[in-house]
Design a protein that fits this description.
alpha/beta, 7-stranded parallel sheet
Amino acid sequence: MSFFEKVVLIIGASSGIGASTAIEFTKEGAKVVIVGRKEDKLQIVATECKKNGQDPLVIKADISIDDDVTRIVQETIDKYGKIDILVNNAGIVRFASILKGNLMNVFDEIINTNLRGIMKVTTLVAPYIIKTKGNIVNISSVAGQVVPKNPLMTSYAISKAGLDIFTKATAVELAPHGVRVNAISPGPVYTDILNNADVTVDEGALKSFDQIKTALNRVSTPEEVANMIMYLSGDKSIGVTGSNFVLDNGALLT
């Protein structure tokens, strides 16, 4: 599974899964591009990558903004001239429901990042991925496969269900060009996504991933998801496309 000299574009790499993915790829000699909205966190990730002998390209950007997406792709091509692997990890959580009266505003915000933004990135990157016969890995969630038990999670669940369909549709469209497209649906993973959501006590929303019941009675680390991303990006999974790998410690079983 050598990724030496491969160019890996990681969207949503400032922390959590994306950060761990960047670090793991640099251990294998890949050239990584790390994209996120918080430059201070991106620099921390860049420092860890440098310890592995690779100086990543750092791009502060917001994929909900079309011009930022265009800039991400252009800066990557200007720097490296190609893209071998695209990891669409960007995602936000916000809490809203019909009866709270804030559903539509929150829905638009979530969709613009979790689905539309990823669709935009993929659209612009696809021609370069075709040239390298590379592959795409989308980070979804088990939330996209079940009816939300908490209505405050409705918009997030819809965004991930949409991403699952987009993954399969993209796999069908790009397969004739030798490009593989897959998704990973984690269950609870120790990241700062809830902190970034500014959860308040009175919302009655999920406060900690430890609240989620799993059959294995554990929560995954970001590194576990990063390892799955690398497996799907490598030649050992050369026959896998249009699949959605669940990595949830059995959360869907409970």
